[in-house]
Amino acid sequence: MMAGTPRIMALPDSFTTSRLRADRLTLDDLSEIRRMHRDAAVMAHLGGVRDDAQTQAYFDRNLKHWGDHGFGLWIVYERGGREPIGRALLRHLFVDDTDEIEVGYAFYEPFWGRGLATEITQACLSLGHRMLYRPSIVAVTYPDNRASQHVLTKAGFVYERDVTLDTVRCFLFRTTTPT
Q1: First and final CA of the chain: distance in angstroms?
Q2: Cα 133 to the chain's mean position, in Å?
Q3: How far is CA 101 from CA 32, 89, 95, in A?
Q4: What is the CA angle 147-153-159, rounded to 5?
Q5: Bridge partners of residue 170, in order along the sequence
Q6: Contact assessment for residue 103 and residue 136, using Cβ atoms and an 8 Å cutoff
Q7: What local confidence, expressed as pLDDT, does residue 2 receive?
Q8: Which residues are CB-contacts of 131 (< 8 A; sequence separation ≥ 6)?
Q9: N or C terminus of the chain with fewer C-beta within 10 Å?
């Protein structure tokens, strides 16, 4: 490591916000990811309902990300709650051959419209800026996902450009810390 370069830390396995608790993805969470991937409302703006093979690939990829990088996907609960209400993530995403850090989230429909997505997004951004030393973090949405675009704008993101990810046109949003 070069002199003056900050040491990147692994992110916490769990963290809380004023209303939420996020716990690291573990082997025990496959059934929860499967449940989420079968929920048409949750998956409407995430590529659609996924079958078991797609879910297993997603799950394996996200477990590997934790192992390789020390951060990734968290299962989200109401603070003090026992039932998962969604997921949140910070992970590497290659956009036009550039390694970015992406923030993302998904909640079950009963938890929409309560500001929880903004709350978890802001918490993930704080972790990314403070612990990964990333001044710039991105998020992607489908062009028709106005609700998510609103969340990202409230969290400090700005639309940057259209991008194509896995042959799908998306909007790329970015936020940066002041220098």
Answers
A1: 22
A2: 17
A3: 24, 10, 10
A4: 100
A5: 163
A6: no
A7: 44
A8: 8, 9, 11, 71
A9: C
Mean pLDDT of 25-37: 98
d(CA 131, CA 8): 6
Name residue 97's amino acid. Answer: D
d(CA 125, CA 83): 24
| Sign of the CA dihedral running 84, 86, 91, 94 | positive
Phi, psi (deg, nearest 5) at residue 28: -70, -10
Average pLDDT over residues 134-161: 95
- 11, HSE (Cβ side, Cα atoms, 13 Å): 32
Strands ordered across the beta sheet of 98-107: 14-16, 20-24, 73-78, 84-95, 98-107, 136-141, 168-176, 158-165
Q: How far apart are CA 77 and CA 79, in angstroms?
A: 6
pLDDT of residue 79: 95
Hey, what amino acid is at 75?
Answer: I
Q: Which domains does the chain have, with CATH numbers?
A: 15-176 (3.40.630.30)
- Once rounded to an integer, what is the mean pLDDT over residues 32-57? 96
Q: So what's the pLDDT on residue 4?
A: 47
